[in-house]
Amino acid sequence: MRTPVFELHIRPMIRSTDRVHMDFFTDLWDYDSVVANADDILSRVDTGGGMPPEGTGGPWPEEWVALFRRWNESGHKRLQLGTATFAFSNAGSTHAVTATGTFPAAGFNGWLQLENETDSAKTYTLYYEAPDAPVPGVPAAFTLKEKYRATDTRSVFVRDSTGVQQLH
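^ thats the sequence. predicted structure below, dont judge the formating
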């Protein structure tokens, strides 16, 4: 069974109403805050805890509680910001954002994720996911590409471990 990851599995479960309800205690959308308070959060959302109350979204389904428990017990895995060389290109009817680099160790996966869109810009983030256990071998080179319609003329930004840069 896959180890849960904060950005992929835990953060999406935390509803806005959950965050507002708990803002006196911790920021449920902040990884470090959730890790620091994970045991207390788990005791509040577990079926015996009755949290969140019915008036603020109702208790989490048991599957969510079990997933949070697994994440807490497995060491609070999270994604890493990657590092790459980025390029922007236009190929006929599509634009492409390309990231080229080498993973930090064997067994890593990575992808470009569209994190934010406005009327004037879109921002991609380069994420790495470490394997659940060390993998023997050498780090793999990668080329990751995201394509979108050439009629989309918004500015393009990418975020990685070195910061944010504009490509187009």
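The longest helix spans residues 62-73.
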